[in-house]
Amino acid sequence: MDTNAVLDVGVDALVLAAKLAAPILVTALVVGFAVSLVQSVTQIQEVTLSFVPKAIAVAIALVVSGHWMISELVTFTHDLFERIPTLVGG
């Protein structure tokens, strides 16, 4: 197993982690920005007003993109298992 193979697996894992985290993070960012904008316009400074909508939006994003996330993880895991013989050198 050479360093290039390790780096390839590491890069693939990091790219997959970024792809899986993107829908959740973008949803939280957009909802947080919208709620912050509403709070600054109306001058209502309530902590739960920013937390609850983000939590609900993230839950909805997980429900919507959960199947895609699991299928991506399963595909990556299958590809890793298929690469084991070449990584070990057999």
TrEMBL record:
The membrane topology term of the UniProt record is:
Multi-pass membrane protein
Q: Which residues cross the membrane?
A: 20-39, 51-70
Single GO cellular component term: bacterial-type flagellum basal body
State whether keyword Transmembrane applies.
yes
Q: Which Pfam families match?
A: Bac_export_3 (PF01313)
Superkingdom classification of source: Bacteria
GO BP terms: bacterial-type flagellum assembly; protein secretion
Write out the entry's keywords from A to Z. Bacterial flagellum, Cell membrane, Cell projection, Cilium, Flagellum, Membrane, Transmembrane, Transmembrane helix
- Subcellular localization(s) per the UniProt record: Cell membrane; Bacterial flagellum basal body
Give the protein family: Belongs to the FliQ/MopD/SpaQ family.
Q: What does this protein do?
A: Role in flagellar biosynthesis.
- Name it: Flagellar biosynthetic protein FliQ
Q: Which organism is it from?
A: Cellulomonas chitinilytica
